[in-house]
Amino acid sequence: MSRKLVVAVRGDFTPLNCGYHRRTADLVAFLAGCFPGTAVYSHYEHPVDPWTDEAIARFEVRFPGVDLILDHAPRAVRLLGRLKNAALAFAPAAAPAILRWTVGSATANYRKMAKEADRYLFVMNTVDTYAALNGFRFNSLVETHDIKFANYCRRAGRSAAGLRAVGKLRSEVAVLERACGIIAISPVDASIFRTLVTETPTFWVPSYDEPDDAAPAAASHVYDHDLLFVGSDNIFNVTGICTYLADNRVWLKRRRIAIAGRVCATPEVVVLARSWPGLDLLGFVDDLAPVYAGARAVLSPVEGTGLKIKMVDALAHGRPVLASTHSRDGLPPGFEHCVLPLDRETVEKLLDDPEALAAASRAARDYHARFLEAGDRRKLKDFIAAMLN
Q1: Which UniProt keywords apply (predicted)?
Q2: Model confidence over 271-294: pLDDT tens digits?
Q3: How does pLDDT run across 110-124, given as a tens digit for each residue?
Q4: Fold for the domain defined by 212-373
Q5: What φ, ψ does residue 14 adopt, rounded to 5°?
Q6: 238: phi then psi, degrees, rounded to nearest 5
Q7: CATH architecture of the domain with residue range 4-206+374-388
Q8: Whole-angstrom Cα distance, residue 183 to residue 201?
Q9: What sections of the chain are H helices per DSSP?
């Protein structure tokens, strides 16, 4: 029996205005390209990214031939999702039963698929998507994006030994054990998942792009800015860029710095820019290629887990990255000549020495080409193909 592949997502990801959107869009494009007939399932309702008429039209343009299956999720389904997450933390061994909890009269399209669950293979776009669906009984793989409990600890400033963090770890592992395969974005994440969930294969996929899908390298000798930061309004982005600029203002104030993305609209960044004449807020930019071309180097002074999509974009455009330790940890080895520390000596040498900047830019393009070849993308494709047949 040949199964149908369905990607389950939480909300509209087509704006592409954060790393989560980009990774999900790349996943859908990869699967649709490999497996014709792939569909996407979601709920109309989402607190930040609901499926509006405009969003649906955008999806149809970006993914022609991919069916978008939508259901209305009433309040009862959303509340049940929260109850499932709480129950998973207290009783992880009961995960298969908990994830099947259902509001019987809701989500008609989903219930129709669930009646013939063996005919479908689901790829979940986050760990949390399992509990959000109205009863889960399919074979599945999960795209993790990051390590959920570790991300929580860093976001909330909590100890990993705290009860809340331990509960999130228990629920995360319980859900991962329910999957037939795990997709990790970084080698560090992959190693942790392989340690925690020994019976489930983990595939390290740093990028879903094929090598010939790389962005054209930015080539410019007329720079509008010395440094560029690109980010969504994620708290890690807000805290990271504001703290770094504030802590290093004395020697950075003579530099021309640009910030792009939804992070520009956050109060913290707006206040910082008001007192910094050389700091330009570009806002959300649809086409970042000219912005990268006009910057000598890119900043990534952020915490969090997983691979930073902003760094991959910069490297794809031939721009070296000045990055925090956590940002560098998400990358495969070999980045040392194009992803550099954020200390003053390193930054000033890169910006003030044209030969050093040119060498780092060449290294960025070379590293990105190797990056697209890295990982288990082909193994993942073969694994899914075997599960579909």
Answers
A1: Transferase
A2: 999 999 999 999 999 889 999 999
A3: 999 999 999 999 999
A4: Rossmann fold (3.40.50)
A5: -75, -15
A6: -60, -50
A7: 3-Layer(aba) Sandwich (3.40)
A8: 9
A9: 19-34, 53-62, 75-90, 95-99, 108-114, 129-132, 148-156, 163-178, 187-196, 235-247, 249-252, 267-274, 289-293, 309-316, 325-329, 344-352, 354-373, 377-388
